[in-house]
């Protein structure tokens, strides 16, 4: 079994001060994949100091220079795409066919930030003042396991473009793509200290990173509970904090929508990546007049998605990312049954033929009321709650009756009608009539889904300060 015993600090692979290890587990087979060293708080201090030392020169590079490094990094990543897909698939259970598409294709979007580096050169004369943009400084990044490469790129690429330096701590169970990325950083000769990588446990390293006096900004993607704790900790030193948190997104299907297409797209949106997609639309709101028809369609579409081994090219649905996540999801399925929701398909039994692994049957509940636990809390598993409604006003009310506001969807007779409803949903994104995911569009939450925006032109805004110089 491969052992990763070094951390990437100040442009070099260095021995960790920490002594513990994390064993990465393939959640489909429960077999160990690799062992990775856990950094200690002393390593946090070393990495942050390296980033601080590198900031003075990196922040002064030209946008063209930084763009060149970003393009080189993207090329290096492109060359290792299959390796990245396998690493992600084996550690978090995304079927390989899907890992190539939804987990790794984001590499192409990395280079977009090369062009966006020029955003930093934008200056504005206001009367006797010159308003300029400057990089925010040393950034601490903490990322989750569900789309680990995508999370890395969404933070690291704009930070590099802006002229920031950084320390990245990925989720302890999925650090392999980050280690590959650090190898790419070394290969292309990014200046030492600009990018530093610490592997290890958030609970052990988080506080040291978030409270470090030399860290200027924390960008966190993960659960709302951990995000709130980070915000509280960072408050004492007034750091900039960007939070990309959980969601419980609604999909409103209108009376005159093409029902089969809408339900099929809604079911697939949740089931791909086993429901572990922060923006997936897990509350399906259907007009009562078409509810029975929609239930039959949802059952059919969920049951025709093959559950299987992650290296089988036919598999649509793999396991959850860990046995612990499986337990969490099963708890929610039980809660749904206890609160009176009815199973359309799925449930707590293992899928047939899978007596081990973190597999959960694709599950759809009907007769769900929006106040039920399964409609209010983020399950992060392959579970859909079908909620009936009587009027479109009521549907919009239900859609907005959530502490979250990350994403949403509408299926209507046409895009124009869908857009009218999209404008009334309190969420950072809305997908109308199955609109495609767009790496050039901003992503981020309203309400307890977080603050700030990643990706697109807005993605770089988090990483600069604005200075006015009075002349
Ligand atoms: P998590 O909060 O458990 O962990 C996320 C990261 O935080 C990991 O790196 C973990 O090691 C670290 N961490 C854990 N405890 C910490 C602490 N006390 N201090 C600092 N860091 C700590 O979340 P998760 O279970 O890995 O990820 C799933 C969650 O992420 C879901 O809620 C999902 O909706 C959310 N998510 C949001 C987005 C978005 O863009 N809004 C994207 C992906 C995932």
TrEMBL record:
<dbReference type="InterPro" id="IPR015590">
    <property type="entry name" value="Aldehyde_DH_dom"/>
</dbReference>
<keyword id="KW-0560">Oxidoreductase</keyword>
<protein>
    <submittedName>
        <fullName>Aldehyde dehydrogenase family protein</fullName>
    </submittedName>
</protein>
<comment type="similarity">
    <text>Belongs to the aldehyde dehydrogenase family.</text>
</comment>
<dbReference type="InterPro" id="IPR029510">
    <property type="entry name" value="Ald_DH_CS_GLU"/>
</dbReference>
<dbReference type="InterPro" id="IPR016163">
    <property type="entry name" value="Ald_DH_C"/>
</dbReference>
<dbReference type="InterPro" id="IPR016161">
    <property type="entry name" value="Ald_DH/histidinol_DH"/>
</dbReference>
<dbReference type="InterPro" id="IPR016162">
    <property type="entry name" value="Ald_DH_N"/>
</dbReference>
<feature type="domain" description="Aldehyde dehydrogenase">
    <location>
        <begin position="13"/>
        <end position="469"/>
    </location>
</feature>
<dbReference type="Pfam" id="PF00171">
    <property type="entry name" value="Aldedh"/>
</dbReference>
<feature type="active site">
    <location>
        <position position="244"/>
    </location>
</feature>
